[in-house]
Amino acid sequence: MLKFILVAALVGAAFSNPESKIDRALLSSLETKQVANVMVSFVGGNVKVVSGIENMKFASRTQRITTLKADLESQAEVSQENVRNYLTAHKSHFKTFWISNQIYITGATRQLVEAIVSFPEVAEIHEERIIELDSPVAPKSSRTPGILAEWGIEKIQAEEAWEISNGTGIVVSNIDTGVRYTHEAVRDNYRADYGWYDPYAETATPNDGNGHGTHTMGTIAGSMGIGVAPGSTWVACKGCSTSSCTESALIGCGEWVTCPTLPDGTEPDCSKAPHLSSNSWGGGRGDLWYEPVTEAWIAAGIVPLFSIGNSGILF
Ligand SMILES: *[C@@H]1O[C@H](CO)[C@@H](O)[C@H](O)[C@H]1NC(C)=O
């Protein structure tokens, strides 16, 4: 009985105190900066839709992904309707995401944040994450390209795997700083058709202001002995600007990888989805914020790959 009263009291407290849905770091940020870019999550997220699709049979992968996207869009439509209407009425700048059932709001004030959490369908609100990238470490000595495989390729026995497949017929993707698609090691296997999306600036062709993304795509799909799957074709999404990745761009790329669009974000075509998504960015141990996206990828039949850091220490 006492247990019941305690649980009831706790549940009651959660309902009567919408402020508990505001992330603490966001509260202090708003105190110092007055405004913040925020992500709003909704009760239930995308879990019901994603697990529903996982258990369904489809005639083709395209049909599976198209249905997944349509169902996630209707879920987001319903969950987000009241908040969307409120934001429109208050002339807020926002972007909705179907993949994770979230809304991104730029320049939110404390007053707006408090109004948003008063909607019972809102689960949580936090300041947008910004993920810093590690810089690639250049080798001490250079090698003659194209003669021998890189030591890393040799080390993981990629050459032995090439006896079975070098990636022919497979479409790979990365979410990174972009790719310099004119680089000699990657220029021949870029798939220009639905091959590029840059949520920061909707640029028309692949570009990389850092070098990190060209480096990772080279490792994935480069020719001249630097890539693991030189026979594959590649597409890319610019989830990271020059040296950091914003949460909203990473989620936007999560959508694009699932169902690619033209570089201006229009005309989605889920038949163009890559077979895998490589990600060389990350966060702390046990941080699950990107899980709604990776779960959707798995339901779509897209293999998620994440680096485990550059320090050489396995945690
Ligand atoms: C990959 O393998 C295919 C078929 O075995 C071959 O035709 C192709 O030249 C190879 N591509 C590369 C880049 O090694």
TrEMBL record:
- Membrane-spanning segments: none
- Coiled-coil segments on the chain, per record: none
InterPro entries, alphabetized:
Peptidase_S8/S53_dom (IPR000209), Peptidase_S8/S53_dom_sf (IPR036852), Peptidase_S8/S53_subtilisin (IPR051048), Peptidase_S8_subtilisin-rel (IPR015500)
Q: Which UniProt keywords apply?
A: Hydrolase, Protease, Serine protease, Signal
- Respond yes or no to whether keyword Metal-binding is given for this record: no
Q: What is this protein called?
A: Peptidase S8/S53 domain-containing protein
| Organismal lineage | Eukaryota, Metazoa, Ecdysozoa, Arthropoda, Hexapoda
All copies of the Peptidase S8/S53 domain together span 167-311
Pfam families the UniProt entry points to: Peptidase_S8
Originating organism: Orchesella dallaii
**PROSITE patterns annotated for this entry?**
SUBTILASE
